[in-house]
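Input for the complex:
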Amino acid sequence: MKFKLHLKPIFNKNRKKNQLKSQYLYMIIAAACCLLIVLSSLYPSTAKPFKYIATAIVVPVQNGMNEIGQWFSEKSDSLKKLSQVVKENENLQAQVDELTLENSRLIQEQGELARLRELYSLDSGYSSYDKIAAKVIAKDSGNWFSTFIIDKGSSDGIAVDMNVIAGKGLVGIVIDVTPNSATVRSIIDDFSNVSAKFGTTSDLCIVKGSLQMMQSGIIELININKNAAVTDGDMILTSNVSDKYLPDILIGYSGGIKDDANNLTKSGYITPVVNFSSLEEVLVIKQLKETGE
Amino acid sequence: MMKRIIAATLMILVAFFLQTAFFTGDISKLPVPNLLLIITVSFGFIRGTRTGLITGLVCGLLADVFFSDFIGLNALLYMSVGFMNGVFNKIFFGEEIRLPVLLVFGSDIAYNVALYIFMFLFRGRLDFFYYLIHIILPEAIFTAIIAFIVYKPILMLHEKFTEAEKEREQ
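Predicted:
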C-alpha cells in the first residue's frame, strides 16, 4: 500500500487569506483563554456562570448515559465472574481456615478493645452524622486526575468542603457545587492532601494523593514523626487537627513504613479501604468541620 | 452549514458523555480514550484551521467547566491541537487513514505532555518517564485505536454534508 496523499495547491489565494484570518482568530482566543485561566484561578467565582449553564444541560443526560454504561459493565462483569468464582472459591476456602484461626484470637482481643474504647470514649464513628446518598455520574475526562461528579448539588443541601465517604472509608471532599451536581476530589487525586493520624498511637501524618502510587492501589503516607512508635497494618484515620475533614473517618491501613533520608520523619503508604475503581454510590456527610474561625 | 454545526455539537456531546460516564466501569485497567481529542483532530484535519480551533475550543471548555479548578487550560490546549491539525489540512488531503490516526496519536501525546508540564512538573513531580509510560502512552495508543475506527465514519459524514451543500448551491 502506498500513501495516497494529494498535495493541495498551497498558494491558492483564497486559501491564504482564510489562513491568515484563522491565525488571528487563534491568537485572539488563545489570549482570551490565558486571561480566563488567570481570572478563574484568582477569582473562582468567574467560572461559576459557565458551570451553572453547563451542568443544567448536561447532568440529566449524564444520568441516563451512566445507566446504559452500568448495564454494559454489569453484563460483562457477570461473564467474567463465572470463571473468577471458581478460582475465588479455592482461595476463599484457604482463607476461611486462616480466618477461623485469626477469629479466635480476635475474640480474645475484643474484650480488651471494649475496655480501651470506654477509656478513650471513642464515639462509634461517623454513623451519627447526617448523610445523603449520591450517585457518581461522571469521572474526569482524562487519566491524570481523580475527580468525579455526583448527582446531588446545593439544592440537596450539599456544600463545598463536605466530606464524602463510601462503605467503610473516606472517599474525598466536595470542591465545587452547582444546584444539581457537585464535584468531588478523591483522596487518591494527585492534588489531594489529608491530615491524618494513626489509630493506635494518634501520631499525626499526611495522606498525600499520588498518581504514581495509585497505579499500584496505594496512597502515599508522609510526615510521620521519626519517634512515633507506629507499625504497619495500623488504622489511619482523619485527624482532629484537619481544618476540612471531620475527625476519625477511616482512610485505610498503613504499610511499608520506613525512615526518610532526612532522618526527621518517616513515610510509608496506606492501602485505602474504599475501592476507587468501582465507585458508584457515595455518601456525603452534611456536617461541616467547625474550625472555630 | 447549520446542519453541520448541529451534527458537530451532537458528536462532541456524545463523545463527552462517553468519555466521562461510559468508560467508568473498570477504569483501573483501561485508560480513558480521549474522544474529544479525536473529534478535534479529525475536524481540524478534514476542514482546516478555523474549524479545528473552534471545535477544540468547545471541547476544551467542556472539559474545563466540569473537571478543572480553573477554566481555560484545556480550552487552550485543545484549541492549539485543532489549529495545528488544521495546518496539516493545508498540506495533505486524502482517503488515507494512517495519517489522521498518526496525527491523533501525536496530538494526544503532545496534549498530555503539556498537561503534565502544567499540572505535575510545576508541583515537583519530576519522574517524567514514569508518567510517559504509565499514563501518556497507554492513553495515546488506545485513543489512536479508537481513532482508527471512528475516523472513516466522520470523514464520510463530512463528505455527505459537502455534497448536500453543493447541491443546494447549484
